[in-house]
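Chain A, query sequence.
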Amino acid sequence: MELIPLDIRNQKFSTKKLGGYDPEEVQAFLNEVATSFENLLNERADLLKTINNDKKSLDKFHEMETILKDAVVTMQETLTETKVRANKEADLIIAEAKAKAEKEADLIRNRANELRSDIDRLKQMQVSYFARLRNLMRTQEDLLNSMENE
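Chain A, predicted structure.
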């Protein structure tokens, strides 16, 4: 039977002839109280072990939580750095592509200007050639006319 504090307070012992208590009854009660307290102490020890184990587990979980938080922060920093690096690389690639396109456009413009100059020069040569050819033909005609008149 488990004792509770009220049982101990309300325990009555029978009296002997001279007003004392029955030693066997007192000893039986003390044995019962001792057993009950032994059980309580054992339970308390078990509970303390459980609490200590739970504290250790809780500490491990807190440690794991800290590690996970650190890992998340590190991942976020890495992700941010990667995004920044990728944006810089993309900007660099775009800048290089624009520069290359501008350079090619300049080359094409220069080549077009050269071709226009060549066309203009060829047109001038054509006009000059036709003028010389006309002069040659007139000279030949004049020569033929003079030969014919002789």
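Residues 5-105 form one domain. The first helix runs from residue 5 to 10.
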